[in-house]
Amino acid sequence: MTFDVITIFPGFFSSMLEHGVLKRALAGGQASIRLHDLRDFTDDRHRTVDDRPFGGGPGMVFKPEPVFRAIAALQAESPSQRFPVVLLSPQGRLFTQARAGELMRQERLALICGRYEGVDERIAEHLATDEISIGDFVLSGGELPAALIMESVVRLLPGVLGNEESARQESFTASEAGQCEVRRGLLDFPHYTRPAEFHGWRVPEILLSGNHEEIRRWRRQRALEKTWRRRPDLLAGFPLNDEDRQCLGALESEACEPRLSSESAKFPEGEQHH
Q1: What is the mean predicted confidence (pLDDT) over 84-105?
Q2: How far apart are CA 138 and CA 274, in angstroms?
């Protein structure tokens, strides 16, 4: 899979391409990442990529000409090949694991890293085939989102992780069809490793028992509990078995039980805390 990243800061990616999953994918030939300096597609001696917005206002806006030229140059390399052109933008669709699975099926992907106040709207309307946002917060540019998307997609490519089972067992796993598998709608269960006791905190005894069925049941219950407490929205439409319903019912009952406040628990009746 080939990624073409259009940016005014190609050096931004140097370190992250030399470590971890991206380095492994590049070394193994599963992915190719090409960085294109947007300033190379300008036609003035100052290599200008931005200008003031029409109508006034703060900040600068990416000019359309250099971006259109950059994509045209990529398309000219393989005129018969069609590939997605993704604009990284706060106005885009939220990036999810399911979306990563969809992108993973592409042979080639262009990522446009915006900067400054934004990009000329004609880039979004007439050039980009999609707009993607990584969340409801503001960054100074699209370089970090581009790196995040590339890692998320690359680790789904066969052979990159080495241990394919590890990828399948994650909280959000994209299937080969590019959709988030419903059976992976739960957050991951807690993980522990040696030592069995650390600073007085012991690993749950069930994990040391060697009873695989009980360990499976414990992990399923802990995954349900973590999802119920942290991301209850993921449980909507999730296929639950009788054991799951019993577990969630117990959690809901526990949440409804009256509890002593921390202060009343600390100070017996008749004593006051000032």
Answers
A1: 94
A2: 43
- Is the pLDDT reported for residue 100 higher than 70? yes
Domain boundary among 130, 154, 178: 154
The amino acid at 41: F
Flag whether 181 is in a domain.
Answer: no
pLDDT attached to residue 258:
64
Tell whether 9 and 145 lie within a shared domain. yes
Closest residue by Cα to residue 223 from 206, 203, 248, 201: 248
**By C-alpha distance, which of 112, 52, 105, 65 is closest to 85?**
112
In degrees rounded to 5, what are phi and psi of residue 130?
-160, 155
Say what the pTM is: 0.78
At 98, give phi and psi (nearest 5°).
-65, -40
One domain for residues 145 and 218: no
Q: Are residues 83 and 211 in the same domain?
A: no
Provide the pairing of β-strand 50-51 with 61-62. Answer: antiparallel
- Residue 270 above 70 pLDDT? no
Identify the CATH number of the domain in which residue 249 sits.
1.10.1270.20
